[in-house]
Amino acid sequence: MVYRSWAEIDSKRLIQNTENVHKYSKKDILAVVKADAYGHGSIEISRILENINYVKKLCVATAEEGKELREGGIKKEILVLGGVLKEELDYFNEYNLQPVISDFNQLQLLDGKYSGSIHLKFDTGMHRLGFYPEDINRILNFLKGKKLIVDGLMSHFPSADTDPELTNHQINQFKNIVDIFKKNGVNPRFVHIQNSAGLIYRCDYCNCVRVGISLYGEKPSDKFPINIKTVMSVKSKIISIKEIKKGDRVSYGGRFEAKRNMKIGIISFGYADGLPRELSNKGFVLVGNKKARIIGSVTMDMTIIDLSDIKNPQVDDTVLIVGKNSQEEISFNSIAKMCNTIPYEIMCRISKRVKRIIL
Ligand SMILES: Cc1ncc(COP(=O)(O)O)c(C=O)c1O
């Protein structure tokens, strides 16, 4: 196979990040591998993580994502964070997937039609999915005499990186919820609320953490205390080099005008590969040990860079879209900041056309 753009996945770093999160949290890990493991390749990432004994589950967003993992040979327990729809029930039974249940509609759907266990999710402040604490009695009554086993209780932080007051309130509220279940004889194997940003909070009554971005090596906040390293670097090639003259305009819309005669390179990586179009005229890539700026509009399959200050560039030279050389670094976070978004989105945007290579 010949490819022009590829993403290198450093499996040693993935394992080390996972180890560091485990050591810091002193808890088991439910590894979040949804959205193709944040763009890293969910089957490949799951194959690595499923060998780690304190990684107890792999978390996906949908039943379809769970099915893909099973078809890829993954044996570990799979938790489907996004719950269950009627037409997905067969997948849960057939592929041995476990749903997160967050309302009575979903609970009723499973009644008599699903033979596995569930996690119950409570809304303590995110206001996305989740039962309210007031629902507990009704849930307990519903479960009486049913075969459904509650394997986990969970909640979710919306703002662990920015709002300690809300987060601490959620930790207390969720503890009350867990206590009520325990008093009523429901003792789940897994109790979890912490995402990566939430790792800095103490939460002794939880026995596992549900983390994604920190495993992939991106800090969820500037003050994140755990030593982690970026797992994915993204690379492409220069496919053509040419000269332009002072006054020439570059790419769609002519949004860049050369102020002097310049050497430019065309790289085989555009917005269809995951380079945000917002980086037009403002982003960089790394060529050799230097930064080369993006000039003009990023196009679907190609991007134009300024090679004027790069020593002896050649067609076929590798460029780093995301990664580090001996002097410079372009991180998911630095790209995200330029685009006024979060590193999660930039990672997920790296498209299927970019071949994932596991190192
Ligand atoms: C329900 C849920 N739990 C856990 C996570 C993991 O969060 P993080 O990647 O910030 O660790 C996510 C991520 O979006 C999520 O939606």
Q: Can you walk through the features of this model?
A:
It contains ten helices and 19 strands. It is α/β, with parallel strands linked by helices and 359 residues long. It has two domains: 11-211, TIM Barrel (Alpha-Beta Barrel), CATH 3.20.20.10; 232-358, Lyase, Ornithine Decarboxylase, Chain A, domain 1 (Beta Barrel), CATH 2.40.37.10. Strands 1, 10, 13, 14, 15, 16, 17, 18 and 19 form a nine-stranded mixed β-sheet that branches. Helix 4 links the parallel strand 3 and strand 4. The longest helix has 20 residues, at 164-183. It is elongated, with a radius of gyration of 24 Å. Bound molecules: pyridoxal-5'-phosphate. Residues 32, 81, 156, 195-197, 210-214, 220 line the site of pyridoxal-5'-phosphate (PLP).
Order of helices and strands: EHEHHEHEHEHEHEHEEEEEEEEEEEHHE
C-alpha end-to-end distance? 17 Å
Q: Which CATH architecture of the largest domain is right? A: Alpha-Beta Barrel
The class by helix and strand makeup works out as alpha/beta
CATH topology type of the largest domain: TIM Barrel
Question: Any low-confidence stretches, pLDDT <50, length ≥5?
Answer: none
The CATH homologous superfamily of the largest domain is named: Alanine racemase
C-alpha-based Rg, rounded = 24 Å
Described by strand count, sense and barrel closure, the largest sheet is: 9 strands, mixed
Coarse shape: elongated
Number of strands: 19
Bound molecules: pyridoxal-5'-phosphate
Whole-number count of domains: 2
Q: Helix content range of the residues, please?
A: 25-40%
Overall average pLDDT: 95
CATH class of the largest domain: Alpha Beta
Question: What is the count of helical runs?
Answer: 10
Kindly estimate the percentage of residues that lie in beta strands according to DSSP: 25-35%
